[in-house]
């Protein structure tokens, strides 16, 4: 009997050992299964909400910009912002600056524009001052006055609606005296100053003619 008891005890210990090994092995299998799942892909960086808008101030065309980088996974490879402009043939890049805490805002001159010491515009795209007068030119970023595409670029990039601001009676974006002013009335030209006096004189002649005609009819009667 003692021999049988020893055999039974050995079997019990053996079974117990196998059970313990099985229990200890389960977490390893679970961990291995977890390792089989792919990592969560990073969130794509975005410039959503960033803007670039044209504005005229003191006869000067400006571009006001606000750049916000959303990058929760830190995948962006740079923090330098530029404004890219093209008409499909010509293109230019305007440096905006370095983002601080993923944000940057400010203003830059429209390409081809300049400001004098008095703070007012003294140069405009598509115009050149030659021999004492302003003349139109195909240079000096004249192409930016037409249909263009603009993008704020940081990596990522964002397309923004942007166009050259028109001249108004309050703010000129062309040289004074040659500007095509946008208003509710017809544009003033050199011809208009001549037409008004001629119209008045013509009306006076018609009135005098009618008076003479009536006087003659009365005298005959």
Automatic annotation (TrEMBL):
Residue span, Gram-positive cocci surface proteins LPxTG domain: 186-221
Keywords (alphabetical) are: Cell wall, Membrane, Peptidoglycan-anchor, Secreted, Signal, Transmembrane, Transmembrane helix
| Bilayer-crossing regions | 194-215
Q: Which residues form the signal peptide?
A: 1-32
The record lists the organism as Microbacterium rhizomatis
For the keyword Ribosomal protein, the answer is: no
Q: Which InterPro entries match?
A: LPXTG_anchor
Looking at the keywords, is Glycosyltransferase present?
no
Name recorded for this polypeptide: LPXTG cell wall anchor domain-containing protein
């Amino acid at each position: 009997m003692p021999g049988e008891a020893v055999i039974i005890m050995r079997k019990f210990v053996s079974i117990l050992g196998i059970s313990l090994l099985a229990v200890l092995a389960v977490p390893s299998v679970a961990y291995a299964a977890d390792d089989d799942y792919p990592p969560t892909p990073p969130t794509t960086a975005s410039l959503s909400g960033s803007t670039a808008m044209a504005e005229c101030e003191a006869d000067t065309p400006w571009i006001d910009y606000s750049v916000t980088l959303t990058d929760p996974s830190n995948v962006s490879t740079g923090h330098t912002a530029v404004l890219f402009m093209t008409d499909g043939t010509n293109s230019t890049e305007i440096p905006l600056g370095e983002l601080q805490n993923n944000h940057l805002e400010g203003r830059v001159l429209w390409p081809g524009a300049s400001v004098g010491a008095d703070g007012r515009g003294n140069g405009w795209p598509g115009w050149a001052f030659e021999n004492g007068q302003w003349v139109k030119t195909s240079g000096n970023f004249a192409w930016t006055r037409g249909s263009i595409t603009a993008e704020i670029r940081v990596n990522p990039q964002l397309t923004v609606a942007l166009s050259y601001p028109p001249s108004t009676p309050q703010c000129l974006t062309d040289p004074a005296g040659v500007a095509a002013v946008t208003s509710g009335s017809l544009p003033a030209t050199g011809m208009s100053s001549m037409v008004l006096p001629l119209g008045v004189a013509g009306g006076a002649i018609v009135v005098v003619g009618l008076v003479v005609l009536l006087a003659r009819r009365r005298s005959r009667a």
